[in-house]
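Dear colleague,

Thank you for sharing your sequence with our group. We've completed the structure prediction you requested, and as agreed, I am returning the results in plain text so they can be pasted directly into your records. Please verify that the sequence below matches your submission; if there's any discrepancy, let me know and we will rerun it promptly.
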Amino acid sequence: MDRLDLHGCGTALVTPFRDGKVDYGTFASLVDRQVEAGVHFLVPLGTTGETPCLEESEKERILEITMEHRKNLPVVVGGGSNSLLHTTESIRLLEKYSPDAYLIVVPYYNKPTQKGLYEYFKAVAGSTDKAIVLYNVPGRTGLNMTAETTLRLAEIPNIVAVKEASGNYAQISEIIRNAPEGFNVLSGNDDETLSLMATGAKGIISVASNIVPAEMAALAEALLGGDMAEARRLHHRLSPLFRNCFIESNPIPVKSAMALMGLIENELRLPLVPASEHTEAVLKATLKKLDLN
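Please find the predicted structure tokens below.
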């Protein structure tokens, strides 16, 4: 089978709420904004989308809207949990909407061995003919997936990429260096986009692109095209935004910034709460410097 080639900037879409309910109309407008800005693929139902706090029917409608508004962009939908049964049930639930790939996070809380991780992801990949994107984010899961395990999994035909958010450059570099043809490494941290893509990663799954989709797409394109001067310019311009999107737990800051821009209501689902006054002030200053408010 031809592997899905994910590259460039993919946006980890926020889920807007209004009065406790998913604001589907606003979500559709956010997808339209991403498409029009030139991002390269869409990632609904990830960490940034507060997926653990969504009902199954909400997940279905969010994916359905994404597919309706995506134009021709690939859609990588979050489908992972810390249980093989729940993950495969989620895949079956979402399969009818025909996403291009599933983003499957390293199982959290259970703390499996590396052998357990391999067998888990192998079983997930075997449950669908769609592409699988691995997601390594130790800061959220409490467990790092090693380069050795990732590279073993990369040999499975429908495991096509890894979103690497470990922040371990040596580990990620080893994956890039030894990955089989057709297996792409995607940065999971906005501030590492330049360094990782300059050494062979193919893209970024971005939080900041909820705010600046055109500039994040341009950054990825500059790096893919070898225009390092433009890439450095964009990286340095956006670095304060990259930093300040994570001064509280994601997606608290990005939702605060988007609310300041008039894109969404500043509403989250417990246990997440809106940004502190200090964080909001920092984000307001950041947006002002970028001429975004």
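Summary note from our side: The chain has a mean pLDDT of 97.

Kind regards,
the structure core
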